[in-house]
Amino acid sequence: MSTGTRRRGGDLEAAIYEAVFAQLEAVGYRRLTMEGVAAAARTGKAALYRRWPSKDELVTDALKHVLP
């Protein structure tokens, strides 16, 4: 039985955006993968693909989230 709770909504989105920027810094845009972001955010790929159908859209939304 798991004692952790599943992150949802804003908490999950924040973890994903944080993972996007960590992956961009570590491997760059060309080598960034949805799998790598999901692993860094400790979530499944399906959670990403439900919100963002592509890497381009995920990175664009992450940038929009932090830029004025």
UniProtKB/TrEMBL annotation:
UniProt keyword annotation of Methyltransferase present: no
Chain ranges of the HTH tetR-type domain: 10-68
Coiled coil: none
UniProt DNA-binding region: 33-52
InterPro entries: Homeodomain-like_sf, HTH-type_TetR-like_transc_reg, HTH_TetR
Recorded GO MF terms: DNA-binding transcription factor activity; transcription cis-regulatory region binding
Pfam annotation, one family: TetR_N
Keywords: DNA-binding
Name used for this protein in its record: TetR family transcriptional regulator
Organism of origin: Actinomadura rubrisoli
